[in-house]
Write a sequence for this structure.
């Protein structure tokens, strides 16, 4: 295994590889790819490549990607089974393998540009560029490379990069800023001693045992997991009491916790979680807290303040949403009952779809919020407003009268019960162009 890893990271990786059979297959595909790219580019430029040929081209490269993914997961399984390997080596080599399996291909980017890649799997053609952005700490470039979807393989470090400042590449891919990690754990172990508002502390305790995200219920029933979720919430309430913890925050925390856990834990289950080193779980917990602060502070910086007290964010979001709708349609307040609309979208304004969608679907939306790609302004606050308006627009397209509370409520339930990745993509596309 050590010999294999040395080969993987050698400077001349195209002449030496971890698995000769896999490598020969991948390398021959690369050679075919470059030759085929030149040939197909010529065909496109002289307009001889008809729609059937284009279909064959897309089909071919789809198959190549499947082979690459298979090779990557075979390697990654071996990698994660090696207990002697340090975490740093594991992550750095993982990034190198990803860049090799998804090279900087202009043709792949051309293909992916025809369709939105706002899915849980994300835009694979951008993996190489995104890792380069992470190495350079170039957030402006990262924003552009993430507009059409964040690949799931690098979702965790992309989120962490956006939420932090001054981190090295190694810290980003470990989702562990040494400074923030030390700050968090210098206090978190004593969070039971925090003198919190009694009502807030009680609400936190009740909400922790009521958190059952779809697909992860057994994990969040575990007492050790609950202890960590509770600690994150208590830390937040202690440091940000104005306005502090709110019901629904647990759903947001669960999304971050799962995405960061799946980055480290192969086949995330309670058994695999309990087998994972404590230091890694500590890292995941701290990263979850860091991201929670990032997204909430980006919202509350835009919220109304009265006598030093921050307004609860759904109220500020609703006020701005109503203003935006009135600018678009000056008869908005006359046509529709604001109370009915507010009631139907309030959960969206509180926890940004996390209450209504499963974690993987929610993560697609959070890609846009965290990376600032959900709206042209690139702000979390505005992104939530425009996503909520996009939701209203999709409901209106069904022919529902927004003044009819029963019909609106029925159509809302139907939307969330039957939602697919393509619907999420449509939602984000509408939000962007508002």
């Amino acid at each position: 295994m050590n010999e294999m890893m040395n080969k993987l990271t050698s400077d001349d990786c195209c002449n030496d590889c971890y698995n000769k059979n896999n490598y020969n297959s991948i390398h021959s595909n690369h050679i075919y790819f470059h030759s085929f790219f030149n040939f197909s580019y010529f065909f496109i430029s002289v307009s001889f490549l008809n729609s059937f040929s284009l279909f064959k081209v897309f089909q071919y490269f789809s198959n190549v990607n499947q082979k690459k993914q298979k090779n990557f997961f075979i390697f990654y399984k071996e990698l994660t089974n090696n207990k002697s390997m340090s975490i740093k080596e594991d992550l750095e080599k993982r990034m190198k393998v990803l860049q090799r399996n998804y090279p900087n291909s202009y043709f792949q980017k051309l293909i992916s540009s025809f369709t939105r890649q706002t899915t849980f799997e994300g835009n694979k053609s951008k993996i190489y560029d995104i890792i380069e952005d992470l190495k350079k700490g170039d957030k402006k470039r990262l924003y552009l490379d993430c507009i059409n979807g964040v690949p799931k393989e690098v979702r965790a470090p992309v989120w962490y990069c956006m939420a932090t400042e001054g981190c090295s590449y190694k810290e980003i891919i470990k989702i562990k800023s040494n400074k923030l990690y030390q700050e968090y754990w210098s206090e978190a172990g004593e969070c039971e001693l925090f003198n919190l508002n009694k009502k807030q502390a009680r609400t936190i305790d009740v909400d922790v045992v009521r958190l059952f995200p779809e697909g992860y219920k057994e994990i969040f029933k575990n007492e050790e997991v609950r202890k960590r979720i509770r600690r994150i919430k208590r830390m937040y309430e202690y440091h940000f009491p104005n306005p502090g913890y709110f019901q629904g925050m647990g759903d947001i925390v669960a999304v971050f916790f799962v995405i960061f856990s799946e980055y480290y834990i192969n086949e995330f289950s309670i058994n695999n979680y309990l087998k994972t080193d404590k230091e890694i779980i500590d890292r995941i917990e701290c990263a979850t807290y860091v991201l929670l602060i990032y997204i909430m502070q980006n919202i509350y910086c835009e919220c109304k303040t009265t006598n030093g007290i921050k307004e609860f964010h759904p109220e500020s979001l609703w006020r701005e949403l109503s203003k935006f709708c009135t600018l678009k349609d000056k008869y908005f307040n006359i046509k529709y009952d604001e109370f009915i609309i507010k009631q139907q979208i309030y959960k969206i304004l509180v926890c940004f779809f996390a209450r209504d969608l499963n974690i993987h679907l929610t993560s697609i939306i959070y890609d846009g919020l965290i990376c600032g790609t959900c709206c042209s302004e690139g702000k979390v606050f505005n992104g939530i407003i425009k996503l909520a308006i996009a939701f209203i627009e999709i409901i209106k397209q069904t022919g529902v009268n927004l003044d009819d509370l029963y019909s609106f409520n029925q159509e809302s339930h139907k939307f969330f019960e039957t939602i697919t990745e393509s619907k999420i993509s449509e939602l984000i596309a509408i939000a962007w162009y508002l």
In short: Residues 1-111 form one domain. The radius of gyration is 23 Å.
